[in-house]
Amino acid sequence: MPLRRAVGRAVTALAATVTIAACGSDAVSPLPVQPPGPSPSTSAVASAPTPSVTPGASRSPTRPPPAAEPPVPPAPIRTRGTPPRPTLSPTTPTSSCLGAVRYDLPVADTELELLRSLCFATGAVLRIQGIGPGLVTVDRPELVSQHYEAGVVDIRFVRPGTVAVTIPKDDRAHTITVVVR
Fold it and tell me: To the nearest 10°, the Cα dihedral for 166, 167, 168, 169?
């Protein structure tokens, strides 16, 4: 007798699942603050006709698929030292300048060919790591304060303007244009 009840409960659960799945995108689950509605009885589930649904017929092309929670866009993958890639719109002015921050640039881990320009506020520091003394040069030394110690060059941008920072790597000189506001 207990086996018969277990089989009956399994059939009821399966029938309820099939009925809910057949409803497609029109099935709505109750909100967490609302008590769930009355559950269908065994006889009601067994006697309820199951509508035939063709895949895609119940969804309109403009309506997104149903979800329990709103989708969250994935965060962009960034490694330390790579600049953020702002989304620019031609109609709305945006500021893609970083503030007065310290920007770490590990030479060994960064593709310098991909880093063409940066924008900082006055007071920001560009920290170039893993470089020898006297190798990093700037074209406008009056706009920066440069310091070297233990394989690290700190370039502090003390005045607004545009500075070209040249970093040698792999027998090439890479120039990064830094705009300081």
Answer: -140
> 173: domain range?
102-180
**What burial class does residue 104 get, using C-beta atoms within 10 Å of its C-beta: 0-12 exposed, 13-18 middle, 19+ buried?**
middle
Claim: this prediction has a pTM higher than 0.70: no
Q: Look at the block and give the residue holding tokens 């970093």.
A: 167
Write the pLDDT tens digit of every residue in 13-55.
555 555 555 555 455 555 556 555 565 554 444 444 444 444 5
Structure tokens at 45: 């589930």
* Domain at 119, CATH number: 2.60.40.2020
Domain tally for the chain? 2
- Does residue 73 lie within any of the structural domains? no
DSSP 15-36: HHHHHHHHTGGG--PPPTTSPP
94 within a domain of the structure (yes/no): no
* Cβ atoms of residues 143 and 180 within 8 Å: yes
CB atoms within 10 A of CB 27: 11
